[in-house]
Amino acid sequence: MADNVVIIGSGPAAHTAAIYTARADLKPVLFEGFMAGGIAAGGQLTTTTDVENFPGFPEGIGGPELTERFRAQSARFGTVIHPETVTRVDLSRRPFRYATDEREGEANTLIIATGATAKRDDVPGTRDHELWQKGVSACAVCDGALPVFRNKPLFVIGGGDSAMEEASFLTKFGSKVYIVHRRDELRASKIMQQRAKDNPKIEILYSHQVVQVSGGQGVEVVRVKDLKSGAERDVPAAGLFFAIGHKPNTDFLGGQLALDDQGYIVTTPGTTQTSVPGVFAAGDVQDKKWRQAITAAGSGCMAALEAEHFLSSH
Ligand code: FAD
Ligand code: NDP
């Protein structure tokens, strides 16, 4: 028999959807993934240290601990959680069909909350066992306010809107922010470019590449290379932020839902409805703008309420 609600994902969006649908007695089944998108079950927050902007934790809380709490709350209300990655779905008719490596099943509604993965470049010194999360980050809004970055030079890699926005944000904390972009022309919108160019604390290094990051307990030196002349130089800095885009985890959908040109699920504005009735999308998999735990959780709540409404009206 088909399940009422199957939730795919394991971040704040998925577990909020699970808490709401479980409390509505819809007996949700949640597939949390096994290193799906290269990230452990629990999603992006498992890759960070302190989360200081999620309400309810005035002292801050570790990312892994927060995700563990989300999961415990889902389980408490009876969500069935499978540690498996959904590899295929068939959305051509209802009930929808899905498969993992271990099972197949049917669902009357689907909530897709598979998130997105921040892209990182493989720069020596920035890898997981090196300075990743010790001054190297992929989220300025999340980590920029940490004391280690105060009044120190910082680097942002990227030439898009995210890089401009993150660099502007970081000028509140750092003494100077270098934007390193691989071409001699930015990709960002004109207004965002102008904002960055007008900021006296920002210096844009065009046609440059970061080739090495080094330090002891944190970032101390960033080596940049001028791609035109080939010259390299060391710049003292306390932080480096990747802003080179995100990849939404939507490959497993096989093109059955409308996606935008970057692969994000398209939802009807103000809702979590996708191009297929009965399939809802929440969190970063459908949001390339806000990308925060609290906004993901909010849209997970919306998806749950919309799924409940859909089931009662069909
Ligand atoms: P995600 O957290 O992206 O999780 C989705 C998860 O679903 C995947 O990671 C994977 O485990 C699973 N999955 C994927 N595909 C499948 C599949 N096919 N089958 C089954 N499971 C699957 N936000 C804040 O508000 N505050 C912060 O301090 C903060 N710090 C951050 C630090 C870092 C380093 C990063 C990268 C992000 C940070 N964010 C922070 C952003 C926040 O983590 C995300 O906005 C939020 O986690 C998005 O939640 P989500 O529910 O959409 O999914
Ligand atoms: P984008 O894909 O727009 O930009 C990514 C940038 O990173 C590009 O400049 C790209 O260079 C560079 N890049 C990619 N890979 C590498 C790499 N391996 N090494 C070095 N540089 C690399 O992503 P964004 O996250 O900036 O934006 C995503 C979407 O979100 C866009 O539609 C954007 O408009 C939107 N957005 C809007 C905001 C706003 O309006 N306030 C804020 C943030 C995002 P190149 O240009 O050479 O390809």
Description of the structure:
The chain is α/β, with parallel strands linked by helices and 314 residues long. The protein has two domains: 183 residues, 3-Layer(bba) Sandwich (FAD/NAD(P)-binding domain); 123 residues, 3-Layer(bba) Sandwich (FAD/NAD(P)-binding domain), CATH 3.50.50.60. Helix content is 22%, strand content 25%. Strand 12, helix 5 and strand 13 form a beta-alpha-beta unit. Helix 1 packs parallel to helix 2, helix 1 packs parallel to helix 6 and helix 4 runs parallel beside helix 5. It is elongated. It starts with a strand and ends with a helix. 44% of the residues are buried. The structure holds flavin-adenine dinucleotide and NADPH dihydro-nicotinamide-adenine-dinucleotide phosphate. The site of NADPH dihydro-nicotinamide-adenine-dinucleotide phosphate (NDP) has 17 residues, from helix 4.
Provide the fold topology.
Blueprint: E1 3-8, H1 12-23, E2 29-31, E3 50-51, E4 61-62, H2 63-76, E5 80-82, E6 88-90, E7 96-99, E8 104-112, E9 116-118, E10 136-137, H3 140-143, E11 153-157, H4 161-170, E12 176-180, H5 190-198, E13 202-205, E14 208-214, E15 221-226, E16 232-236, E17 239-242, E18 246-248, E19 279-281, H6 293-313
Parallel strand pairs: 1-2, 1-8, 2-5, 8-19, 10-17, 11-12, 11-17, 12-13
Antiparallel strand pairs: 3-4, 6-7, 7-8, 9-18, 14-15, 15-16
Helix pairs in contact: 1-2, 1-6, 4-5
The structure holds flavin-adenine dinucleotide and NADPH dihydro-nicotinamide-adenine-dinucleotide phosphate (NDP).
Flavin-adenine dinucleotide is lined by residues 8-14, 31-33, 36-37, 39, 41, 43-45, 47-48, 51, 53-54, 85-86, 113-116, 118, 137-139, 142, 249, 252, 283-285, 291-294, 296.
